[in-house]
Write a structure and sequence with these properties.
By secondary structure, the chain is mainly alpha-helical. It is built from six helices and two strands. It has one domain.
């Protein structure tokens, strides 16, 4: 589906993490609560980032000289729930990703580029 796919692997070794639970809900398109069903019905948009980018940014911010109390927004792309579901099931999204909250300051000041969010979404396996 995407040129830069990596080998599919679970993002977490535990099935109890909130992240894994959320990804299962999005992948299966099954709302376990009325609130989640409302989010599905509204096709809410989520700002997303690869957790590996978060780790990189935290490390770089913590080790950068004269960077005390600097704040960074760690977000790269936004997708609607329906497109998150499509990506996680090896389908192309209907709409292009959007940048609602720019992480450009983090990229420029910390010297890294956010990876495309579709990579961890495609790599997620239940």
């Amino acid at each position: 589906m995407f040129e830069d796919e990596r080998e599919k692997r679970p993002l977490s070794k535990t099935r109890k993490s909130e992240s894994v639970q959320s990804q299962v809900v999005f992948k299966k398109n099954e709302a376990p609560t009325p609130l989640i069903q409302m989010l599905f019905d509204m096709d809410v948009e989520f700002a997303m980032v690869d957790v590996e980018d978060v780790v990189t940014a935290i490390y770089k911010a913590a080790t950068k000289e004269n960077n005390h109390s600097e704040k960074y927004l760690l977000s790269s792309e936004s997708f609607r729930i329906s497109d998150i579901h499509r990506i996680m099931n090896d389908q192309k999204p209907k709409k292009a990703w959007l940048v609602r909250y720019s992480g450009k300051k983090a990229e420029e000041e910390l010297g890294f580029n956010f990876r495309p969010v579709h990579i961890p979404l495609v790599n997620f396996s239940v």
